[in-house]
Amino acid sequence: MKNIAVLGSSGSIGQSTLEVARSLPRQFRITALSVNSDIVKLKQQIDEFHPKRVCVVDRRAAAKLKNSLGHSVKVLCGQEGLDELVRDESVHQVMVAITGSAALVPLISAIKSGKEIALANKEALVMAGEIVMGLARERKVLIRPVDSEQSAIWQSLGGQDVASVKQVYLTASGGPLLSLPRSKFKQVTIKKVLQHPRWKMGKKITVDSATLMNKGLELLEAMFLFDLGVEKIKVLIHPEALIHSMVEFNDGVTMAQLSVTDMRIPIQYALVYPQRLPSALAGIDFYRLSKLHFAKPDLGKFPCLRLAYQAARDLGTMPAVLNAANEASVENFLAQKIKFLSIPKIVEKVMQRHSRIARPSLGQIMSADSWAREEVKRLTCILN
Predict the structure, then answer these.
(1) Residue 349: is its pLDDT beyond 70?
(2) Cα dihedral sign for 132, 202, 11, 371?
(3) DSSP code of residue 73
(4) Largest CA distance in the chain
(5) Among 216, 230, 235, 271, which one is least packed by beta carbons within 10 Å?
């Protein structure tokens, strides 16, 4: 039985992870949980799973939870609390389901502690992929991807040397705005943007799906995870979202991973690898499947993907700047401070103003992240 720490247990991936653990009680024990501030949901999870430790990043929320629980569970707080939680010797595997750049530091701590890693966060690798993957190789830690697309690439590779890879096709559903003409993007509402046709996800990642930035971040993530050059990765619009990604090898053979659109499938595979345990989820009914559609992404309609390809070619601190500018801009969009079309405009301006560092340290990456967020603030004030 594995002892698992779930970082970001109140989010969609965190909750799906707990569903998987619930369905496989003989395989997993939930010994640690973390949230940013949602102590209502965390308390429900504590009552069900009885973890030894929990961490609430928000200090006020942590103090409130501590007072309500007494001494029944150890309550940690802040980034130092996350660090202590992942370093706990009783934890075997860490599910990193924290959204955004906040996952980077606990991910590095988990790798340094030699934990098995299931990674559902893409921003940490986008920001510091070379550092993270270098550390993972040094500590002999296998990072098991949870994103459906990265999991599909991982499974399609099947342990083959990446030198045998001719092309990777990173599939994208196209998001909620795929069929909407760009001329109508000016009037698009938050409600419309958050109506994803295939996946039920958090707000930030759903906005990223609408701009196709999510696919751009996955492009960068795949480069670092699988040691691939940007020229070997193509984004492919696939509205049915049944093929989660494909790998074409030098001999002309293409391997694809297909499954229904349910995150519990890649989550379970990452947790139980190299096993394939039974699941209650239905497979694809090929007798009822009539057509699959594929198309090139429209970079004019979705400029965020173009910007991600630029960052993938530039590398250095540019991916961190891309990620931070996008993260801050999406927050502003959800807070109704900017319009939807302002997201790529602001990200591009921030990237243009950035003085790239070719081989940055972790400190320089964090500084670039902070600088980009401040630039977004300035540009948002100017736009308004």
Answers:
(1) yes
(2) positive
(3) S
(4) 62
(5) 230
Distance CA 7, CA 10 (A): 9
| Nearest-angstrom CA–CA distance, 264 and 327 | 25
Domains, the chain, ranges and CATH? 2-145 (3.40.50.720), 155-260+281-313 (no CATH), 316-384 (1.10.1740.10)
The two tokens of residue 125 are 């690798």
For residue 171, CA distances in Å to 26, 42, 124, 174 come to 34, 34, 21, 9
pLDDT band at 384 (very low <50, low <70, confident <90, very high): low
pLDDT in tens, 38-96: 999 999 999 999 999 999 999 999 999 999 887 779 999 999 999 999 999 999 999 99
CA dist., res. 84 & res. 53, Å (int): 10
The pLDDT assigned to 199 comes to: 78
Which percentage of the chain shows pLDDT scores above 70?
Answer: 100
Confidence of residue 282 (pLDDT cuts 50, 70, 90): confident
DSSP state letters, 327-374: HHHHHHHHTTSS-TTHHHHHHHHHHHH----SS--HHHHHHHHHHHHH
pLDDT of 210 higher than 70:
yes
The encoded tokens of residue 302 equal: 């979705």
User: Quick one: which H or E segment has residue 83?
Assistant: helix 78-87
Angle at 298 between CA 294 and CA 299, to 5 degrees: 135
Checking if the pLDDT of 243 tops 90, the result is: yes
The CA-CA-CA angle for residues 325, 328, 330, to 5°, reads 105
User: Cα(316)–Cα(374) distance, rounded to whole angstroms?
Assistant: 19
